[in-house]
Specification:
Elements lengths: L2 E8 L3 H8 L9 H5 L2 H9 L4 E6 L14 E4 L3 E2 L14 E2 L2 H13 L5 E3 L6 H11 L13 E6 L9 H16 L6 E7 L16 H13 L1 H4 L4 H8 L7 H8 L4 E3 L6 E3 L4 E12 L2 E10 L1
Parallel strand pairs: 1-8, 2-7, 2-8, 3-6
Antiparallel strand pairs: 1-12, 3-7, 4-5, 9-10, 11-12
Helix pairs in contact: 1-5, 4-6, 6-10
């Protein structure tokens, strides 16, 4: 059967992609940030997955305010980088995995989660920046990402947005869906977005190092409690865009130390073993705090 072997968590700041695309990664401002991903790029080469299930949020490119799905899974064979106002990022198209994506959609919907199935869309920096950080820069014409990617878009732009608990429970359902797939596939699940930042209003530029790192501690050691963090805490402590962190809870819920019984719906934490392979935190990157974490199932 397929199995989830690791979870990757990372911010997806658009300015990071611009720094890579414009050759600024060695400038003093950006050097400390990219140094924090050197381990990750080597780890990715040493632990190459067959498929990446990548949780991100669309920034009004694939979806506009006319239609905003809460959870949308990409089932297409490929996805082109989106033009977000300055032309598409110079990176390769993303190859999908329609068979596994369709299986996950069927399984998760049967577990009472409503997904929007998307057979055609473009992907923006929310998805391509994490790929660049973890896999390195790729030639946009002749290069390729190391494996197929299943895009999973979550609405954290227009309220109401899903709760952390809902996202955590969804991650468990995705984990069960992957394990019920017949082919022997090594799957990574990635949660992206965050950490603390606010892009507008009187608190524009807000960064809360203490809260960010305390939240990361709890995500690792007590994700069940972390999932109960209410929206108002994210907004108050991490800024209006800090609520993107609920997407990390989808990836965390799929890990082997979080087991939910199909019959009792009870959650047992600590049933499996998860190893922290890498943790990194840096400010500033543009006006955003950058968090990064790699967890690997034992």
């Amino acid at each position: 059967m397929a199995r989830i072997t690791a979870a990757v968590f990372t911010s997806h700041v658009p300015a990071i992609g611009a720094a890579m695309d414009l050759g600024k990664t060695h400038e003093p401002y950006w050097q400390p940030l990219f140094k924090g991903y050197e381990f990750s790029k080597q780890w990715m080469k040493d632990n190459r997955p067959d498929v990446i299930f990548l949780v991100y949020n669309d920034h009004a490119t694939a979806f506009s305010l006319d239609m905003i799905p809460t959870f949308a899974i990409g089932t297409a064979a490929q996805y082109q980088p989106a033009d977000e106002g300055f032309g598409p990022r110079p990176c390769p198209k993303v190859i999908g995995h329609p068979e596994l994506a369709s299986h996950i959609a069927h399984s998760v919907i049967q577990q009472d989660f409503d997904l929007t199935i998307v057979n055609r869309m473009e992907v923006d920096h929310g998805l391509t920046v994490p790929l660049s950080l973890m896999c390195g820069e790729q030639d946009p014409v002749h290069g390729a990402w190391p494996c197929p990617v299943i895009p999973f878009a979550v609405n954290v732009v227009q309220y109401p947005v899903p709760s952390g608990q809902r996202c955590f429970n969804l991650g468990q359902a995705i984990g069960r869906a992957v394990e019920s797939y017949d082919d022997d596939l090594n799957v990574h699940i990635w949660g992206t977005g965050g950490m603390s930042h606010q892009l507008q209003g009187a608190r524009a530029g807000l960064i809360n190092r203490e809260w960010d790192n305390a939240w990361l501690d709890q995500l690792i050691t007590d994700p069940v409690a972390c999932a109960k963090t209410p929206h108002i805490d994210y907004v108050r402590e991490a800024g209006s865009e800090g609520v993107e962190l609920v997407m990390w809870l989808i990836a965390r819920g799929a890990m082997s130390d979080v087991v939910q019984s199909d019959t009792t719906k009870s959650v047992a934490f600590g049933a499996g073993s998860v190893r922290v392979r890498h943790r990194f935190y840096h400010v500033p990157a543009s006006n955003t705090a950058v968090g990064h974490l790699i967890l690997q199932n034992a």
